[in-house]
Specification:
The chain is mainly alpha-helical. The chain has 4 helices and 4 strands; from the N terminus they run E-E-H-E-H-H-E-H. The strands form 2 sheets. A two-stranded antiparallel ribbon has the order 1-2. A two-stranded parallel sheet has the order 3-4.
Length: 114
C-alpha cells in the first residue's frame, strides 16, 4: 500500500515544518513494516538494527526525521506512533527529541498490534 504521505507533503511536528523527501517516501513503508513486526513481538529495536533490517543507506543517527514522517503517517491512519520502539543501543532509551512517555506509548503499540 505504501505511506499515505508523498514526496513534497508538509506537516508540522515538534515546532517545525517537515517536508517529506523522496528518500523518506521510498523507504518509509519498509521501515513501517519492520516496526509493526517489532510491535507485534512486543519488543524494541535499536537504530542500528533498524537500519540493517530495513536496508537503509543513511547512518542510524540520521533517522529522527524519517521516524517523524512515519509518526505522521501513523497519525493519519489513526494509529499510535511507532517511534518509541526505536532505541539507542547503549542506553536503550528513545531519542532525546521524542515527545511522550515511551513506556506507556510502547504498551499502546503492543496492544494495538497484538
Amino acid at each position: 500500500m505504501g505511506l499515505l504521505l508523498r514526496p513534497g507533503d508538509r506537516f508540522d511536528m515538534k515546532g517545525r515544518t517537515i517536508t517529506v523527501t523522496q528518500m523518506q517516501a521510498d523507504v518509509g513503508q519498509r521501515v513501517r513494516d519492520e516496526l509493526i513486526d517489532v510491535a507485534r513481538r512486543g519488543q524494541t529495536i535499536t537504530y542500528g538494527e533498524l537500519k540493517a533490517s530495513a536496508q537503509l543507506s543513511h547512518p542510524p543517527n540520521g533517522m529522527g526525521r524519517l521516524l517523524d514522517v512515519i509518526s505522521e503517517d501513523c497519525r493519519l491512519r489513526g494509529e499510535p506512533s511507532l517511534a518509541p520502539l526505536v532505541v539507542n543501543a547503549e542506553t536503550l532509551e528513545v531519542g532525546a527529541d521524542y515527545e511522550g512517555a515511551p513506556n506507556e506509548d510502547r504498551q499502546r503499540l503492543y496492544d494495538h498490534w497484538s
